[in-house]
Structure formats: structure tokens, C-alpha cells
């Protein structure tokens, strides 16, 4: 019985870790549009996305996108889980460096989970976390 429980725990752990990335193909969450189509709406309110010009960002949209796309690995409050802690990522990486990670992936993080204006918005939002 103990051996069966250990096997079940191991299987759940392997499944949850593999769900966070590492594969070449990814599918967006059920409530997200495909990553190759820019989001036209704020997922939390259904209102149009209003990403501001470079240097600024729409924090509400960035946070909603992060929670829908990234929080599974990085935690709801950026505390880190399977992925690294991002609470002070802006002290280590600038917006362009964060955008490069979003576009190209890094470690187990697959590339292109968010693209276009959404990636720019999240990158600016994260760069402000110092």
C-alpha cells in the first residue's frame, strides 16, 4: 500500500513538472487565444488591451496575462515555484532582456508563451519589479 502511494505521488510530480514546459510544442490555456494571435482583450475584464507606448505599460493587463500564462510556474505573487522567483527580476534584467526570455525561452521555459504587444507589456511590468 505504501509503495502504491509513493508511485502515485511520483507520477503526479512528474506530470506537474512536465506541464510547465520543456517540450517543443505548447498549447495556450483553454481561456487564452493561441500564442501566435495577439490578444485583443483584457482576459480579466473582456475590455480591449491598452498597452501604452514604450517605457510604460498597462499593469492590470500585464498582471492578468501573467496570472493566466506564467503563474503556474512562477507563482501567483511571482514568488517562484517550478520556475524562478520574479519578485525582483527588474533589478537583474531590463525590459529588453526579459522580452528576449519571453520570445526565446530559457531553461525549461518554452519560447513564445506570450507574443507581440502582450509580451512587451509583461516585459515592461516585470522590469519594474525591483
TrEMBL record:
InterPro entries per UniProt: Cyt_c-like_dom, Cyt_c-like_dom_sf, Cyt_c_BACSU-c550-type, Cytochro_C551, Cytochrome_c550/c551-like
Gene3D superfamilies, per the entry: Cytochrome c-like domain
Keywords: Electron transport, Heme, Iron, Metal-binding, Signal, Transport
Leader sequence segment: 1-21
Annotated ranges, domain Cytochrome c: 57-130
Matches recorded under PANTHER family: CYTOCHROME C-553-LIKE, MENAQUINOL-CYTOCHROME C REDUCTASE CYTOCHROME B_C SUBUNIT
Stated name of the protein: Cytochrome C
Organism: Brevibacillus choshinensis
Organism phylogeny: Bacteria, Bacillati, Bacillota, Bacilli, Bacillales
Amino acid at each position: 500500500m505504501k509503495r502504491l502511494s509513493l508511485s502515485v505521488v511520483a507520477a503526479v510530480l512528474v506530470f506537474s513538472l512536465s506541464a510547465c514546459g520543456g517540450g517543443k510544442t505548447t498549447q495556450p490555456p483553454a481561456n487564452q487565444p493561441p500564442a501566435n494571435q495577439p490578444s485583443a482583450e483584457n482576459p480579466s475584464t473582456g475590455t480591449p488591451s491598452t498597452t501604452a507606448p514604450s517605457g510604460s505599460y498597462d499593469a492590470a493587463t500585464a498582471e492578468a496575462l501573467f496570472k493566466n500564462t506564467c503563474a503556474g510556474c512562477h507563482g501567483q505573487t511571482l514568488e517562484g515555484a517550478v520556475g524562478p522567483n520574479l519578485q525582483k527580476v527588474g533589478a537583474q534584467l531590463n525590459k529588453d532582456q526579459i522580452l528576449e526570455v519571453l520570445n526565446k525561452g530559457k531553461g525549461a521555459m518554452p519560447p513564445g508563451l506570450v507574443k507581440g504587444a502582450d509580451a512587451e507589456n509583461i516585459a515592461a511590468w516585470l522590469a519594474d519589479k525591483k
